[in-house]
Amino acid sequence: ADCSYKKPCYPGRCYGGSGCSCTPGFTGRTCLELRRQQFKPLIERINSTFTYHSFTQKRDVYNYMADATNRTAGDIVWTNQNKFNQLEFDLEAYVDTSTVFPNNPPLPSYVMETKLGIVAASVKIIHEKLRKGGRYIAKEQTLSCPGVSNGQPISDTRFKCYKKESYMIQFDSGDRYKLKYSITTGGYRKLRNTYTWSYIRTETYSGISEENSMEFWFDYDEPNHCTEDSSCSLNESPLQLQEDITKSPISPKWSGWVDKLSDIGKYVIEVWKMEYNIDYSGLREPDITTNVNPVPDYITVVLPENPIKFPTYEPKDPGVYSVIIEVNDRANNSKYARRFVIYDNTSEITISEIHRLYATSASNDSQFSWMTKFSQQVDVSWNNHFLNDVHEKGHFLAKILDYTPRLSDNISRVDYKKILEKFDDTEGVRNKTAIKNINSIVRFETRHGKVSTEIPQIGWVPVFPLRENFTFNLNGIDIEDGDSHQFWVRAFDIMGNTRVDSIVVHFDSSEPFVYEPMIDLNIKDGNYPFSSSVVVSAKDQHSGIKKVSFKFIVNETEEVRSEHTFDIQTQ
Asked: Which parts pass through the membrane (predicted)?
């Protein structure tokens, strides 16, 4: 075959007068072009790291790594940091010639030497910025790895390239910093004159490259809720609870959150049992101290799926719970919203045995059971008679304090976990405002009527404003001496639990009837000489006789010589 340094064909075989059949994977008129995908270098490691290094503290404050090892689509890393001063590149690649080029024939006489391997490695840096019309390239440069070239390929040994560059770059939100890596397989062949056996020239193979990329995307903007720019269309809520007064599991929901740059990465739901702070007279989440770093009663991560899988949580104990949502974008910017809920499926209203329900209009002498002066109005009081002890001791209805900002993750984000006023709870029943109550009772209702052992179902009248007394109006009710009338009071707590108590008031405005006393003078066998006895008879057909009082007076001087009161025991 007519192949020579004038008409080379390697790697390949000559045939006919001037034909050249290249080894599979090589093409071109003289087989200088590499085309087979398996000829590409094997990338064993490829990553880039942005770092902010404190030279005064002699330590890395933070860093972000993008790693495209074993990736075909590259790697994208979102960050909300805007200050870096170091950029590192780390690359390792390998070409095993016995595996990659197993079909290459022996060298013909006109080829002095040939070598294939890694001949180039570089990273192209592209800094893109965002403006109204779209993206534009603000800066572009290429950094090449030393130690390799077309005349100095590396094969059968691991090629390493590490670069550490000093960078002082200020990135803006929306910037993209792209790193495009390229590692090329190529090489050379040296030709000689087979007649003189002298070197003629060196020809280089056109290489084939393995490429990959890493990108750092910058986003400093927090997620946005549609209420902030009035773009809501379906009454979307940043956070809502199915019920904020409940005996059932807590069920938070939300909608309307967006992030234009990096998209929503996740939602985090926390549930905290609130504590009462004596100094500020209000409820708040457990505070972080030097000795205590509290954790929520419940925490879960919810992915931004469609539809979203909303969580539920059933607390172990009654209490006021704070539900906080963290809306976190892919660059780790967060915004928070908070709602409150009273959970209680066990407590009840109790009645005090010490503090009575009684008619203050009734006679004190009758233990407030009888009215001796008839009036169309009856005053009833029940101070401290009804109580929800669990709610009272837990301050369930107290005001809720502003959220104390907390958490710091680097030199620029201090106390970043905060609840903006527009995302705090001002809706529903249990919000930040204290709920008016007396002993954790939020409503009283009253009813009066004929004496009955049954609790009335209708006709209840609310006591407004909230207080522990009420004046019943008996206009239009025909009440006579000896009649009885019942007065009911019904108490409600915030959970809707009720407790009813009542009193019965009797009416008797008429005086007892007293018969003429019978005096027996100088009775025999008296306790004293010349003793006398007095017999008094009295009756009251309505309320009966409770006591009888005697008073002996000297008529001429009106001197009281003796007096005594006898309590009448009812049979």
From this structure: none
